[in-house]
């Protein structure tokens, strides 16, 4: 299954790549034809290496700029059609939090990528508290030491077709995680602070849908509206990356 969207709020706020370290060495090349499970998108990051297989440039941009790929606009049509394999060595002492910034530098170098940000009003869903109040479990970490949100140290949320699960999630992260399933950007309007252990499941085709599951399991609901959304506009990109 191809990755439909990267929910970048999982990563936090982007860093300016010029102020960050760069990969020690990196290989970027077009993916060869693959079938079956070998044709799936594979993402792997450890303290030493970043390895992405069968990934589009649009999704690489989403990772690099910590952006929802559905809010990436412009650029040539092949951004969603051409697949690449990327392997890059992380410098000793660099944290995983610096990977997106290093990826920005890599994309600018190899693909001559140029982007800019714009804001526009568009349809969105607002995540609000349901009529009966929230049914949320405070994260154990928040109960123990009063921490409301710890960027960089929080385990990532797991998102699949019909479910979202994650520890110590702020409402902003839950909202962005719901965007792909809801079909539009979801903006947190709950007013709830702190972090929560989230487990939400629904049946995409038949059975309890996302809207019903939100109300029944978390005491939350989605309301339609319009919001100012930030988009990332691709000005330029070359299909064939510069040689490694």
Keywords:
244 residues, alpha+beta, four-stranded antiparallel β-sheet, four-stranded mixed β-sheet, 20% helix, globular, disordered N terminus
Describe what this molecule looks like in 3D.
- The protein is of the alpha+beta class and 244 residues long.
- It has two domains: 8-119 and 230-236, no CATH class; 120-229, no CATH class.
- 20% of the residues lie in helices and 33% in strands.
- The strands form three sheets. It has a four-stranded antiparallel beta sheet. The chain has a four-stranded mixed beta sheet with strand order 4-12-6-10.
- β2 (42-45) and β3 form a beta hairpin.
- α1 (57-65) crosses α2 (99-111).
- It is globular.
- The two termini are 28 Å apart.
- 33% of the residues are buried.
- Residues 1-18 and 142-153 have low confidence and may be disordered.
Structural class: alpha+beta
Order of helices and strands: EEEHEEHEEHEEHEEHE
Count, helices = 5
Morphology call? globular
The tally of strands reads: 12
Largest sheet strand order: 1-5-3-2
Low-confidence stretches: 1-18, 142-153
Q: C-alpha Rg, in Å?
A: 19 Å
Largest sheet: 4 strands, antiparallel
Any idea how many domains? 2
How far from one another are the termini?
Answer: 28 Å
Report helical residue fraction.
10-25%
> How much is the average pLDDT?
84
Strand content: 25-35%
Would you kindly provide a brief summary of this structure?
This protein is an alpha+beta fold.
């Amino acid at each position: 299954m191809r990755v439909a969207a990267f929910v970048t709020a999982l990563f936090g706020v982007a860093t300016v790549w010029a102020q960050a370290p760069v990969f020690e060495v990196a290989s970027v090349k077009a993916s060869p034809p693959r079938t079956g499970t070998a044709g799936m998108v594979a993402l792997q990051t450890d303290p030493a290496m970043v390895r992405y297989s069968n990934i589009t440039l649009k999704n690489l941009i989403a990772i690099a700029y910590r952006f929802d790929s559905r809010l990436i606009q412009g650029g040539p049509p092949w951004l969603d059609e051409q697949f690449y394999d990327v392997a890059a060595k992380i410098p000793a002492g660099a944290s995983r939090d610096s990977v997106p910034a290093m990826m920005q530098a890599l994309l600018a170098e190899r693909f001559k990528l140029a982007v800019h940000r714009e804001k526009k009003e568009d349809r969105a869903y607002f995540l609000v508290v349901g009529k009966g109040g929230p049914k949320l479990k405070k994260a154990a970490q928040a109960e123990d030491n009063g921490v409301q949100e710890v960027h960089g140290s929080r385990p990532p949320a797991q998102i699949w077709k019909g479910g979202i699960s994650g520890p110590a999630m702020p409402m902003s992260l839950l909202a962005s995680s719901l965007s792909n399933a809801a079909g539009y950007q979801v903006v947190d309007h709950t007013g709830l602070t702190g972090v929560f252990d989230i487990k939400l499941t629904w049946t995409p085709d038949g059975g309890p849908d996302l809207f019903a599951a939100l109300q029944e399991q978390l005491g939350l609901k989605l309301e339609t509206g319009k919001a100012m959304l930030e988009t990332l506009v691709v000005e330029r990109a070359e299909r064939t990356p510069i040689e490694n």
